[in-house]
Model the fold of this input.
Amino acid sequence: VPFPQFLLWLPQWVEDHIGLGVVQLPEPEDRLAFVIELARLNLVHGTGGPFGAAVFERDSGALLAPGVNLVVPLNSSIAHAEVVALTIAQQRVGHYDLGAPGLPAYELATSTEPCAMCLGAIPWSGVRSVACAAREEDARRIGFDEGAKPDDWVRALGERGIAVQRDVCRERAIAVLEQYHALSGPVYNARQGEGKRR
Ligand SMILES: [Zn+2]
Done:
């Protein structure tokens, strides 16, 4: 019996939302507003957790790849918004390294700061910068476990030449997290005890 294949796909609504035109968002606030809206629409459509991310060309702001959290629909604990966006970005450029010679510099924008897993994925991905809206404690407040991260993760990425910008549109991102919480969306983290589930 062959093992199942793993297919990563985005819900149809993502394509419908973005349309066929070029999305170009040079300002950090606009990039974060874009991924926060993906997070909000993901909860509205019931296609996963309240998290959105995207890979942009860092300097021009051209959208390379959107991503949303797909843990529940894909039955995959790794399908966080950041991993989804990075994977689609790499498939789109046809290279596992977004920092490969000949490619423009890329930025990962994410509606909530990366968890321990996504933090680990960032240096491997080849992006040159990361921009975040909500902080990890904002996700923890509604029950999501961000995993064990070094306190100085921003500096650690900086030492690898990956700049991190925090708190861009943070309040707007928190509002989406709280909306998910109010709707009693599933908190799917396996490490959470029953007592922490809502
Ligand atoms: Zn993550």
About this structure: Confidence is low (pLDDT under 50) at residues 193-198. Residues 80, 82, 114-115, 117-118 surround zinc ion (CB under 6 Å). The radius of gyration is 16 Å.
